[in-house]
Amino acid sequence: MAGHSKWANIQHRKGRQDEKRGKIWTRLIKEITVAARMGGGDADANPRLRLAVDKAADANMPKDNVTRAIQRGTGTLDGVNYEEVRYEGYGINGAAIIVDCMTDNRIRTVAEVRHAFSKFGGNMGTEGSVSFMFKHCGQLLYAPGTNEDAVMEAALEAGAEDVITDDEGGIEVLTPPHDFAAVKSAMEQAGFKAEMAEIIMKPATETVFTGDDAIKMQKLLDALENLDDVQEIYSNAVIEE
Predict the structure, then answer these.
(1) Alpha-carbon distance 87 to 73, whole Å?
(2) Among candidates 49, 111, 41, which has minimal Cα distance to 75?
């Protein structure tokens, strides 16, 4: 099925992530530690850990850092005990925002998240206030110019849920969360390496922001992104350059 043009926005988001490489390492270490604690230290038997380890490799994180994070998660090394917590809220013009955190101090984290929302024109909501507008799924993104028919055939054969092509020719493959690792592996074996591959909260609808509202919304998202305890941010806002 076809979708609106989104490739420039995706590349923009990826670029912003690349600019924060040091912070990405810190977040990945937390994710690897928690994934190992919850599902064990064997990446082949722990899909969440496998995804985190693959992301660490893509981010050029040294293998020793990965090993130590796994050891902290499994208890072989001492380390901070992080817990996962999700906050939900509203941005400019009521745009939906989900903020996923890992923290060793909930009181500090909620205060920082609430302050960022209020300072930049948003407000926190209650649990479940916006999450119903998002779908938990795996997402693989392929650049414009990739053979759409070949990707669709490989994706559906691998067990993907949907294949969406935008107006610029970018291709989005969606999977159930528990099938993500298997579909990603099958796609790579078929010769298709995704530009971005992750398990996300995908908004059911999107709101496009331009002009001053786009600037204000980006400032709010940046403020949340810059908090030390924040791991991921999902929003139905699309910021037009």
Answers:
(1) 24
(2) 41
**E strands along the chain, which residues?**
2-3, 83-90, 96-103, 123-124, 134-142, 162-166, 171-175, 196-203, 207-209, 230-235, 237-239
The pTM score is 0.83
Beta-bridged to residue 100, according to DSSP, are 86, 232
Mind listing the pLDDT tens digit for each residue in 166-223?
A: 888 889 999 999 999 999 999 999 999 998 899 999 999 999 999 999 999 999 999 9
Interatomic CA distance for residues 194 and 157, integer angstroms? 17
pLDDT digits (tens, 9 = 90+) for 82-126: 889 999 999 999 999 999 999 999 999 999 999 999 999 999 999
Q: Sign of dihedral through CA atoms 35, 64, 17, 92?
A: positive
What are the tokens at 103? 């923290």
